[in-house]
Amino acid sequence: MPALPLDEAGKYVAAAYIVFAVLPVVYVAILGAKLARIEGELAKLLELTDDERSAR
Question: Where are the transmembrane segments (predicted)?
Answer without folding.
Answer: 12-36
